[in-house]
Amino acid sequence: MHALTFPANGYTAAAGPALFDEGRGCGSWVEVTGARGTVLVKIDNLCPECDAGHLDLSTEAFAAVDDPAKGVVLIVSRVVRDPPVADGLAFKVKDGSSPWWLGLHVDNVGNAVASVEVADGEGPFRPLTRQSWGWTLESSPGAGPYRVRVTDVHGRSAVADGLTLSPGVLQPTTVRLY
């Protein structure tokens, strides 16, 4: 899964299987320290060949922590709880979604996402299933507009209203988890 939005400074990283955790780590933020300094990077993809502790940093992030000409460098990293998030939650309905199947990308959460639920209008919330690239509801989500409840790994939830069945369109909100 690629992040829907990128930090303005371009500081992103692909994480190995342990940190990416089948998509659970996507959208998390990691503090990375190298010879040149410390930066926050957003995990935006899987690096299948990366060992635990190895991050495949974007060009911008790498240059901020060490000399890119070195290729591979020693860094110290840690996942950051409640990192500063510039914007509210954002959603993108996956291409191929319909009133009978829904694929959903969630962004700007800050922490790893524990669960996503969707309700058609004022109906009851129904849980989505995690995929490596996002979330799906396999049976009849309805035509929308939807309410979406996002819960992070620390138990905080927020509900965004008015999500439409508009595949491929980024739908930003002002709703935040913290």
Automatic annotation (TrEMBL):
Pfam family, one: Expansin_C
Expansin-like CBD domain ranges (all copies): 90-161
SUPFAM superfamilies hit by this protein: Barwin-like endoglucanases (SSF50685), PHL pollen allergen (SSF49590)
Keywords: Signal
Domain RlpA-like protein double-psi beta-barrel intervals: 29-74
PANTHER family attached to this UniProt entry: EXPANSIN-LIKE PROTEIN 7, PTHR31836
Protein name: Expansin (Peptidoglycan-binding protein)
